[in-house]
Design goal:
Elements (H helix, E strand, L loop, with lengths): L3 E9 L3 H9 L6 E4 L16 E2 L8 H11 L6 H9 L1 H11 L9 H4 L7 E2 L9 E2 L5 H14 L4 E4 L2 E8 L10 E8 L4 E12 L20 H9 L3 E2 L4 E8 L12 H4 L3 E3 L19 H15 L4 E4 L5 H7 L1 H9 L9 E10 L2 E3 L11 E3 L4 E2 L11 H19 L24 H19 L2 E2 L1 H22 L6 H22 L8 E2 L13 E2 L7
Parallel strand pairs: 1-2, 1-9, 2-6, 9-16, 15-17, 18-19
Antiparallel strand pairs: 3-5, 4-5, 7-8, 8-9, 10-15, 10-20, 11-14, 12-13, 13-14
Helix pairs in contact: 1-6, 1-12, 2-3, 7-15, 10-11, 13-14, 13-15, 14-15
Length: 538
């Protein structure tokens, strides 16, 4: 039997963005934080690098802004970049206050202007400004924030809850466009419950799982982007997906990301014959922005017909490697690779969704009462390519900004009245799970082949045709089949894939990581690719 729930704030997603918002909200609010799997299933837990922020006395806000603009391929919105960077120090202080165990610097007084924590440098940054917790920053941040959330009696942390769709006044045939909550599948009961809320927040991460090779966890299916689109929100720049240049290439390794901090500490990229190749592509060599590095790796792999290239830090002292990269050392050793003596085989893999749901500085979407934060959103920060370690920063800055905005409007918004339950009257059981698995594989493969790093107009047309056939099949299937996490994710991923393809077809140039053979040059003016859903209301 399905159930009805009411909360002041419904947060869909339990990563850095969702937990930051929940912890910043006042203690008297009733908050639900939903995860479609275990609470740690999101990308935050697996983030290795760190958080970019202006922390050193020798660094400046302007320098961080300029580095980000340079990496973004002309598409960053300077006001969003500046807003994010200007709030970076206070966000880090908030994390420190929460108890995040960032790595301390033994030589702070000598090297880093007296700042007590160790700062590293990553590709595209002109200064050491990445605060980290060894090479498992995401795990340290997530574990700390989760521990804090568990201590708040007003925050309900709910696992195995899959958001099916948002509930809006428009959907219910009422006057207005406000979001009133969401229908949520409880995987433990198999029922779709109704969650009413004064404010609803999408913190569901990106959609990198649309590609065959990805560094992201299995859950990165673009759920929030798809739900927001169906609810009437615009999306922007979805044709830009950042590929992490160095993912471990090993038959038993599942999407293990090799942190960019390795290159920040002197690791070199080599061909199978030991030759370095980055000096041929960029004067910054291994410290070039990741779009340059990923495209260079992809170019060399295809030029030579090799399965991978190699990242080599074995020239550094073994003790240094083991102390700075303990997770990396242990994980690679489990696959028979001793990184103190051997180079690491790597390939580029889809990593970060640069576009998303359009929002303002408060996280507002086009639908009143609905916020989007973190990788789900498009703030204008990332442009054509995400700057290393700016993504976690964005989660904290915009999560806290959205929380402040919600608090400011509490008195104006009443709890929604009783909402209609999910209609399961047309649902039948089926033994056709194989269709879901087949379509999932097909989608990820043709997206990799036709819509990956290098594109052509003909490939995009083929992809568009395939995804529309797939969407039609899913819609027919979806309306007569008992909903499951796999089916919901496939539906959302296919929807976001279509939006990516449409965005890519509008982009008549090559910019950022992606290269279009039909349009190899860049246009004089960089413009966002904005798509409006049929339900979009001016």
């Amino acid at each position: 039997m399905s159930q009805q729930f009411q909360h002041d704030v419904l947060v869909i997603g339990s990563g850095a963005a969702g937990l930051s918002l929940a912890l910043t909200l006042p203690d008297h609010l009733r908050i639900a934080v939903l995860s479609k799997g275990d609470l740690s299933n999101g990308s935050t837990f697996w983030a290795q690098g760190g958080v970019a922020a202006v922390l050193d006395d020798t660094d400046t806000v302007q320098s961080h802004v300029e580095d980000t603009l340079n990496a973004g391929g002309g598409l960053c919105h300077e006001d969003a970049v500046r807003f994010t960077v200007e709030h970076s120090r206070e966000s880090i202080q908030w994390l420190i206050d929460q108890g995040v165990p960032f790595t301390r610097d033994e030589h702070a007084s000598v090297d880093d202007g007296g700042f007590e924590f160790h700062l590293t440098r990553e590709g595209g940054h002109s200064h050491r400004r990445i605060i980290h917790a060894a090479d498992a920053t995401g795990a340290a941040i997530f574990t700390t924030l989760l521990s804090q959330a568990r201590q708040r009696p007003n925050i309900e942390l709910l696992e195995q809850r899959v958001a099916v769709d948002l509930i809006t006044e428009r959907r219910l045939g009422q006057e207005g466009d406000r979001c009133l909550g969401a229908y949520v599948l409880n995987r433990n009961t198999g029922e779709v419950d109704t969650y009413g809320a004064r404010f609803t927040v999408l913190a569901t991460g990106g959609a990198a799982k649309v590609y065959l090779y990805t560094s992201n966890p299995d859950g990165a299916c673009g759920d929030g982007i798809a739900m927001a689109w169906r609810a009437g929100c615009r999306v922007a720049n979805l044709e830009f997906n950042q590929f992490h240049p160095t993912c471990l290439y090993h038959p038993q390794a599942k999407s293990f990301l090799i942190t960019e901090a390795l290159r920040g500490e002197g690791a070199l990229l080599r061909l199978p014959n030991g030759e370095r190749f980055m000096p041929r592509f960029d004067p910054r060599e291994e410290l070039a922005p990741r779009d340059v590095v990923a495209r260079a790796i992809d170019h060399e792999m295809k030029r030579l017909g090799v399965d991978c290239v190699y990242l080599d830090i074995s020239h550094k002292p073994a003790d240094f490697i083991k102390s700075h990269f303990p997770t990396m050392y242990e994980r690679c050793l489990a696959f028979g690779i001793d990184i103190t003596r051997q180079p690491i085989p790597v390939v580029p893999a889809a990593h970060y969704t640069c576009g998303g749901v359009m929002v303002d500085d408060h996280g507002h979407t086009d639908v009143p009462g609905l916020y989007a934060i973190g990788e789900t959103s498009f703030t204008g920060l990332h442009g054509a390519n995400r700057m290393a370690s700016n993504s976690l920063l964005e989660c904290f800055v915009y999560g806290r900004a959205a929380a402040t905005d919600i608090e400011a409007h509490l008195e104006q918004i009443a709890m929604p009245k009783a909402l209609p339950c999910w209609d399961a009257s047309q649902v039948t059981d089926s033994d056709e799970d194989v269709i879901i698995a087949h379509n999932w594989d097909e989608l990820r493969r043709f997206m990799w082949d036709y819509v990956g790093i290098v594109r052509t107009s003909k490939r995009l047309q083929r992809a568009e045709h395939r995804v529309r056939l797939l969407l039609d099949e899913i819609d027919e299937f979806y309306s007569n089949y008992k909903v499951s996490r796999d089916l919901i994710e496939l539906r959302n991923l296919a929807q976001v894939a279509e939006l990516m393809i449409r965005s890519a077809m509008q982009r008549k140039e090559s910019r950022g990581l992606h290269y279009t053979l039909d349009y190899p040059g860049m246009l004089a003016e960089a413009r966002d690719t904005i798509l409006q859903p049929p339900t979009y209301a001016d």
